[in-house]
Specification:
Strand content: under 5%
Number of domains: 1
CATH architecture: Orthogonal Bundle
Mean pLDDT: 87
Number of helices: 4
Radius of gyration: 12 Å
Structural class: mainly alpha
Number of strands: 0
């Protein structure tokens, strides 16, 4: 999955990780999906998501930033920002 710049598409990787953290039967993960209301993310799911993202991208997502997540796009934006500064 490459974007127009020849780099791996971070957006698709984030969606794939989020999709893999949920039990089957949950709604499809979209950028506008609300974490709690649409995807039913709870605190345990959130820990798993953060760990998976940290492992996948070699980053360290700070708890203070994670608490502000509302939709999948928030997750993507934070991951993209952390990748850019490493």
């Amino acid at each position: 999955m490459l974007d127009g710049n020849g780099q791996v598409d971070v957006k698709q990787r984030v969606i794939k990780i989020l999709s893999g953290c949920f039990q089957s039967g949950r709604t499809k993960v979209l950028m506008e999906s609300r974490l709690v209301e649409d995807l039913r993310v709870d605190s345990i799911d959130l820990v798993e998501i953060v760990m998976a993202l940290n492992d996948e991208f070699g980053i360290d997502l700070p708890e203070s930033d994670v608490q502000s997540w509302s939709v999948v796009e928030d997750v993507y934006n934070l991951v993209r920002t952390k990748i850019a500064v490493r």
